[in-house]
Specification:
By secondary structure, the chain is an alpha/beta fold. The protein has one domain: Rossmann fold. It is about 45% helix and about 15% strand. It contains eight helices and seven strands. Strands 3-2-1-4-5-6-7 form a seven-stranded parallel β-sheet, with helices on both faces. Helix 2 links the parallel strand 2 and strand 3. Helix 1 crosses helix 8. The longest helix is centred in the middle third of the chain and has 22 residues. The chain is globular.
């Protein structure tokens, strides 16, 4: 898969899945706009990639998307691929302990941000362009403890399918649904610096392939859905879960 000359936006690009997505696209010839609310992290990722730029993007802020669209138009003349990857998780626990503000934040970061990307970036995207968002296998097969998060990801999957029909055939819109990965996600979800070994093992025990998701697994799936090789795929939610959703 080559992306020579393609203009790519990656949200949440400073770490985890987003970092791997940025590196993978850039490694295959793309010009990458690394965006994140953590601008220092975005700058660090961009500095290691040929031709990449960084932009501070709070995906809950519509005006920031407007500014990014203006920058893409003035700097690169348009957008070919959007990897709407930015996401956030609340602390694991009973939904009765989740505040209304936390519940609303899941919607704003994980779902509404895709709407903002579509609203403000598609006018700059020529026919043949692609949007790939990052959902979660929890949006299809939820487990206790992350219900608001999983709800927002399920909404992202449905949003993807609806948008795909609206924008076909000019712009393909798909998403990926990863299983758990040992990234900053679990630092937020558990409140601990590292994933507790018993919890990690219990997660792995539910994955037939016997391991958690590596960020490169997600990056490869995103690139495939954005590539010419997937030119007939739209409205797809590709499970990147090692078989976790089988049962």
């Amino acid at each position: 898969m080559r992306f020579d000359g393609k203009r790519v936006i990656v949200t949440g690009g400073a770490s985890g899945f987003g970092r791997a997505i940025c590196q993978s696209f850039a490694g295959r010839g793309a010009q990458v706009m690394v965006t994140d609310i953590d601008i220092e992290g975005a700058d660090e990722v961009a500095s290691g990639l040929d031709g990449a730029l960084a932009f501070r993007l709070d995906v809950t802020d519509e005006d920031a998307h407007v500014e990014l669209a203006k920058l893409m138009a003035s700097t690169w003349g348009g957008i070919d691929i959007v990897a709407a990857n930015a996401g956030f998780a609340h602390r694991m626990g009973s939904i009765l302990d989740i505040s209304t503000e936390e519940f609303d934040l899941m919607w704003a970061v994980n779902t509404r941000s895709v709407y903002f990307a579509v609203k403000h970036f598609t006018p700059l995207m020529p026919p043949g362009s692609s949007i790939v968002s990052t959902a979660s296998i929890g949006g299809k097969r939820p487990r206790p403890g992350l219900t608001p998060y999983n709800t927002s990801k399920a909404a992202t999957i449905v949003l993807t399918r609806g948008l795909a029909e609206e924008f076909a055939p000019d712009i393909r819109i798909n998403c990926v649904a990863p299983v758990a990965s040992d990234t900053a996600f679990f630092v937020r979800a558990t409140g601990q610096d590292t994933l507790p070994p018993p919890l990690k093992q219990s997660i792995i025990d539910g994955i037939p392939m016997g391991r958690m998701t590596d960020p490169t697994d997600v990056a490869n799936a995103v690139m495939f859905l954005a590539s010419d090789e997937a030119s007939f795929l739209t409205g797809v939610c590709l499970d990147v879960d090692g078989g976790r959703s089988i049962s």
